[in-house]
Structure formats: structure tokens, C-alpha cells
Amino acid sequence: MPRLEALRQRLRELGYVEGKNIVIEYRYAEGKLDRLPDLAAELVRLKVDAIITAGAGSSPAKKATATIPIVIGSHADPVGSGLVPSLARPGGNITGVSLMAPDLDGKRLELLKEAFPKIGRVAFLWQRVGGIRPLTEMEVAAKTLGLKLQSLEVRSLDDFESAFARAKKERAQALITNPSPFIATQQRQVLDFAAKNLLPALYPASEWVEPGGLMSYGPNITDLWRRAADFVDKILKGTKPADIPVEQPMKFEFIINLQAAKKIGFTIPPNVLVRADKVIR
């Protein structure tokens, strides 16, 4: 997993060698979010010096301990979800890196429209995350670009099938998703739907493009997890999480998968290709 390797590499750069002066206990939910509370409780029982979490694992970790430092490797909205009271002054035992960044929704829609100028109806597959209002923000962006937005909210696994059916019925011409840990657990199902229905799609992170997604635009996840290692280093050296501000993304990346474009019969315009940070051919 690239994010994990980025974390480990940065820890090595900081002088930590697994098995010598640091031990990392790995726990995976394997897409089953209901396992997260038990996994968090297990780490607490081991009396670890710090817990590193991602997205959906952050809240279960907070519920499991109010004393062990928790470092968020990436989270859509630490404030709105109640993990910390503010980014600048997180207080408590939690700090880390947020995925929050201004105007990301508008930028994603803009890139989608630029790559596929003829689209008019875009299906938006989303889940509410913390205090973020993804539908409202995306509707504003769509109106600015002259696009009709089809809201496909999912709250449970049962919602995906009906959401896809609605997108087909309303003749969606493209697909976009928000950075939701829950939707990410159904990545294969979402990618297969877009491919089967020949829908150009734009996703929130590179982890969607590498297994077959068409395009992604969002924070550089590898960079976030490298920075998470610096938080761990500070905590192990005695700094309290309450005194370390939660940081926001600094690096963003636009990735295009030309193999995926070919499979759905679309050509990416040269002016869009040159803007990509990475092109999978």
C-alpha cells in the first residue's frame, strides 16, 4: 500500500528502524468498517505509544482512548466530524493531516468538463462526512459550469444499487465521487459501474485511478502520510498532540488513465493531458 510505505520510509529517514527502535502493529479492517472499534480497542490494550489512523478509523480510535496520542494520516473533515474542535488548536489527544482544501469540488468538475466538453448531466455519488456539505458545494460548482447535477447519496451498502439504477434512468453522462471512506470500500463496484456504462468519471484520489479509474484530482495522499510520520516523531519525542495543529494538504495531483479512457471509447484532449501530473498509458 503506497500510503503505508510512504509513512515507513519517512520514519526511516527520521531514524526509526522497525524491529530496532520502533515496533509497528498493523491492523486492517479489510473494508469491513464494523471491525474498526474492535481493532482500535485491541491497539489500546497493547498500550501502544501512538495510533495512526485513516479516514473511517479515526472516530473508533477516539472512542477507544482519550489518552493515547492519535495521528490522523488523512481525514475529510476532522472538525465537522468532531475529532478536534479546530485545526489550529486540536486539544485532546488527536492531531494529524486533513484532506480539507478550498474549492476542490469546483476544480474537479472543471477538469471533468474540460476533458469532456459535451457532458451536461453529471451523477454525483456522495456520502455525508462530518460537517462538510458536499451536495451544496457541488451544486454551486455545477451551476457555475452550466451542468445539471444528479444527487446520488449513499448511506448503506443497499443504496449503491439503487443509486446506479437512478443514474442510468436519468441518463447521467459522467460520474464524480466525494472523498468518502465508506464509498472507497466499494471502489470495485463503483469502477465497474462507470466502465460498464461507458461513463467518464473523476475520483478524489489516485488510489481510484491505479486499479482502473479514469481520472482523479485531489491531495497527494503519499505526501500526507509522509507528513504523518513527522507528527509521530514529534509525539514520541514528547510533544503533546494538543499542541500540534492539524495540517491541510499542500500538494495536489491530477492523474489520468489512458487505458481506462480507451476502454470506454473516449479521447482525452491534449490541453488536458498536459496538465496531468501523471498519465497511465
Can you give keywords for this protein?
globular; 12 helices; 2 domains; seven-stranded mixed β-sheet; alpha/beta; Rossmann fold; three-stranded parallel β-sheet; 10 strands; about 280 residues
Question: Any overview of this molecule?
Answer:
Strand 7 (201-203), helix 9 and strand 8 (215-219) form a beta-alpha-beta unit. It is built from twelve helices and ten strands. With 281 residues, the protein is an alpha/beta fold. The radius of gyration is 19 Å and the shape is globular. The protein is 39% helix and 15% strand. The protein has helices spanning 2-13, 36-45, 58-64, 104-115, 134-145, 158-169, 181-185, 187-196, 206-209, 221-236, 258-263, 270-273, and strands at residues 51-53, 70-72, 94-96, 121-126, 148-153, 174-177, 201-203, 215-219, 252-257, 278-280.
Number of helices: 12
Number-wise, the strands total 10
Structural class label: alpha/beta
**Per DSSP, what share of the residues sits in E-state strands of 2 or more residues?**
5-15%
Number of domain modules: 2
Distance between the termini: 21 Å
Strand order of the largest sheet: 5-4-6-7-8-9-10
CATH A-level architecture of the largest domain: 3-Layer(aba) Sandwich
SSE order, as H and E?
A: HHEHEEHEHEHEHHEHEHEHHE
Percentage of residues assigned to helices: 25-40%
> What is the radius of gyration computed over CA atoms, rounded to a whole number of angstroms?
19 Å
Q: How confident is the prediction overall: mean pLDDT?
A: 93
